[in-house]
Amino acid sequence: MVTISAERPATDELLDLYDAVGWTAYTRDPAVLRRAVDGSHRVLAARDDDGVLVGLVRVVSDGATIAYVQDLLVRPAAQRTGVGGALLDAVLERYGHVRQTVLLTDAEPGQRAFYESRGFTEAHDVEPSSLRAFVLLR
User: Fold this and answer.
1) 0.85 cut: is pTM over it?
2) Average pLDDT estimate for 112-134
3) Is-contact 42 61, C-beta < 8 A?
4) Residue 29: phi, psi to the nearest 5?
């Protein structure tokens, strides 16, 4: 079972999680990662029954009109177990009042399918009244 809570994990936990998913651009400078997490509008952490950090999502937002999902990562051993979906669903619930929820992702078909299953649409397909969009990176 995984528990999701609003928290800013310790720097060593962040480094371990970001390293586990290969996001070394974030881990090269721990102080910058710490500032990024601390400066985020909201951070949600997923922990297993032993308290190990298995996932994290962080959001940059004005809290009123836009929420930008900056990072959504899940430890490889916990991927495809519902952790990422639970984290993203928790963000969407908490930011249901904003006009736009945006994220960037790469063009990998599995990632695209995941975000589309949560109601996101590729940015060039978004109508002005749409609530969720993602931009694919190549």
Assistant:
1) yes
2) 70
3) yes
4) -135, 90
